[in-house]
Amino acid sequence: MQAPLLKVKDLCINIGSSRGKYNLTDNISFDVYPGETFGIVGESGCGKSITALSIMRLLSYPLFIESGEILLDDNNLLSISEKEMRNVRGRSISMIFQEPMTSLDPIFTVQDQLIEILHIHRKMTQNEMIAKITGMLELVGIPRIKDVLASYPHQLSGGMLQRVMIAMAMMLDPRLLIADEPTTALDVTIQAQILALMNDLKEHYDTSIIIITHDLGVVAETCRRVAVLYAGQIVEQGEAVEIFHNPVHPYTQGLLKSMKTLGSKDKLYSIKGTVPSMEDISSGCRFITRCDYAQDGCEKEQILKPVKSEHICRCHKAGAL
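Given the sequence above, the corresponding structure tokens read:
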């Protein structure tokens, strides 16, 4: 087996406040291999986006990385200088942010913003830069390229903006692409097109992809392996096929039961309660207040343990439910 391209090891992200320091993610660990698509799934507030931002080293005060390692080809990104990290962003790792409308600068045209990337990272003439961005926009399926390049972000649709963001992220041929909720707020037809486009680009460039989503349908469509996050912890991780057919953590089971099946007349299931706030997180199982199977032993700290090969779960009753 190939060595991992990216290793996230025991990542702990904290937030400081006037009331003290709180732990937002607890020893997050996962690997991403060359050419694979890895999914991170969970409800809003589970720690998905801040994990992605920490890989890019884009966390801002009061968030900070307390401990852990983020290894790209065994080089720890947390130990290099900001100048060195600027060379990693875009060239080795790129990110598609959750809201394309707010990720692009509203006072510059699409062309200006695409050219800026090449101007900073590549020594190219103006004509060479125009040819490069035109070719990339063609690759992501954007029609009327001259009109799009001359447009400001507010003049483009959500689907078109997402394509621009993907083109921007792939401009420097990165080895790893992080996509944070890439299909949010898009209709189902455009969602399918964006997912197909990302898959085509992965095959074309042999790029590894991390997809962050709350949509299990996106995971089923695109990912080989998946990590399920809850309240800052990985509660289950394994191959996507195994997770979908044999979920063993009650939270994963609840997420799958919450998916609406086409043609079903059954009442839509929902997990009771909400994700606990950082002040309310217990020292034991963080899902205990919402779990239908909670009993003695759940108040103790839960650790990740193997269920099958490459399938791990944070529940002392894993496999018995």
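DSSP finds eleven helices and twelve strands in the chain. Try to locate this feature in the token string yourself.
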